[in-house]
Design a protein that fits this description.
The chain has 129 residues and is of the alpha+beta class. It has one domain. The strands form 2 sheets. The protein has a 3-stranded antiparallel beta sheet. A hairpin with a 4-residue loop joins strand 4 and strand 5. About 15% of the residues have low confidence.
């Protein structure tokens, strides 16, 4: 299964770990209704709620398409530009199907089992549905 994930280029970690509150503090005036005030804005349930079996010490999360990633994470182009400026990139993984936990809005997987096949610039423009 192909999985799309936002990562900080130099560390490979997700935006929660490297950026955390910084993007919320800077962008709460965008007029978006954030569901998480302590983390980067996203519109869905937490990964623990969405992907039962998620192992916090080993799994990471992503989405099944770039469009899903933008819809779930970064509805505002302002936020996407800020994330790109902070070193975020689009990582694309190939993950064996039996090692992916598919939730309603995101997926979880162990990156040690997956293969990262590409690291691209953060998609700033809206992806058409």
């Amino acid at each position: 299964m192909r999985v799309y994930r936002i990562e900080v280029r130099d560390t490979g970690t997700g935006p929660f770990h490297q950026i955390g509150m910084g993007c919320v503090e800077k962008h709460t005036k965008d007029g978006l209704g954030y569901t998480r005030s302590d983390l980067c804005p996203y519109s869905g349930p937490s990964v623990r709620e969405d992907c039962p079996g998620f192992e916090v010490d080993q799994d990471v999360c992503g989405c099944e398409s770039v469009r899903d990633l933008q819809t779930f994470w970064f509805k505002s182009p302002t936020i996407r530009r800020a994330m790109a400026a902070r070193g975020c990139r689009l990582a694309i993984y190939e993950v064996p199907d039996n090692h992916v936990i598919v939730g309603s809005q995101q997926v979880a997987f162990n990156p040690r089992i997956a293969k990262r096949i590409a690291l691209k610039p953060m998609p700033v423009k809206e992806i058409a549905a």
